[in-house]
Amino acid sequence: MSIGKLTHYTFDLVLISIILAGIHRNTGLQFDVSHFSSVDVRRYFGKYLAFGEACYDRVVSLLKFSGYFRQSNLIYDFAQRASDRLKEETGRSLDEFKRENKVD
């Protein structure tokens, strides 16, 4: 096996572990290692998944500080778009609507 193939397979394994870590972080779904009969395989696969979690953390921190990405709040963004649409369609802002109808 050449060094190029070994590097390629290693990179693929790291990417798969990062994908599994992302699935775990975003959905809560975790790979069930109890299906493996060997304790050694379970332990090594657990270390592999932990390595993916560490790589995922490192990638996220690099992206945060790169300046090319920004974090958004989905709920706030949705409320802002709804407020903008209300103003566009009715000509009144949400605050004006609340004052007129005395809504808290």
From TrEMBL:
It comes from the Eukaryota. Pfam families: Mitofissin (PF08520). InterPro entries: Mitofissin (IPR013726). It comes from Spathaspora passalidarum (strain NRRL Y-27907 / 11-Y1). This is DUF1748-domain-containing protein. GO terms for cellular component: cytoplasm.
